[in-house]
């Protein structure tokens, strides 16, 4: 059985590797749709609030109204220096590579799975017309290829 839950958050980012408009700092209202595999144990499988109580606050704390940023982006060093110099505390959601929607899907799939949920599919909507579908097979392939091995080391330490 599948339970489908939707969440939204606002975040800024840029993709410094591209040579187009996405190289500029800009923001999105990201929509994510989680598809959870659940097993019925009686009259119900899982309370919807079990998802909302963990995922909602997590997204609000780590992502909402923050900046997704590659730690290798020169802007990252500039922002960290500015924060130290001026005592400001920007919400920076650190990536170990470009902040593409594909990498965001991988990162969110990993984080939600580590919460103990059996996530089978994650859809990430970046714009009104652009959605990526990222499933368990994609996640297994990315983990196997160790494409994001540095991210794993950092995430595991937390």
TrEMBL record:
Pathway the protein takes part in: Purine metabolism; 7-cyano-7-deazaguanine biosynthesis
Name of the protein described by the UniProt record: 6-carboxy-5,6,7,8-tetrahydropterin synthase
SUPFAM superfamilies: Tetrahydrobiopterin biosynthesis enzymes-like (SSF55620)
Enzyme class, UniProt record, top EC level: lyase
Pfam families tied to this protein: PTPS (PF01242)
Family: Belongs to the PTPS family. QueD subfamily.
Enzyme Commission identifier(s): 4.1.2.50
Molecular function as annotated in GO: 6-carboxytetrahydropterin synthase activity
Species for this entry: Bremerella volcania
Catalytic reaction annotation: 7,8-dihydroneopterin 3'-triphosphate + H2O = 6-carboxy-5,6,7,8-tetrahydropterin + triphosphate + acetaldehyde + 2 H(+)
Recorded superkingdom: Bacteria
């Amino acid at each position: 059985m599948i339970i489908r839950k939707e969440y939204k958050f606002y975040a800024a980012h840029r993709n410094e590797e591209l040579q187009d408009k996405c190289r500029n700092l800009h923001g999105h209202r990201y929509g994510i749709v989680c598809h959870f595999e659940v097993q019925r144990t009686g009259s119900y499988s899982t309370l919807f609030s079990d998802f909302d109580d963990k995922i909602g606050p997590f997204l609000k704390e780590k992502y909402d109204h923050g900046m997704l940023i590659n730690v290798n982006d020169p802007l990252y060093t500039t922002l960290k220096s500015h924060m130290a110099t001026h005592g400001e505390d920007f919400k920076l959601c650190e990536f170990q590579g470009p902040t593409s929607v594909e990498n965001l899907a991988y990162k969110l799939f990993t984080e939600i799975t580590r919460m103990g949920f059996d996530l089978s599919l994650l859809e990430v909507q970046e714009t009104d017309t652009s959605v990526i579908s990222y499933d368990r097979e994609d996640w297994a392939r990315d983990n196997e290829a160790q494409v994001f091995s540095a991210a794993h080391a950092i995430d595991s330490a937390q």
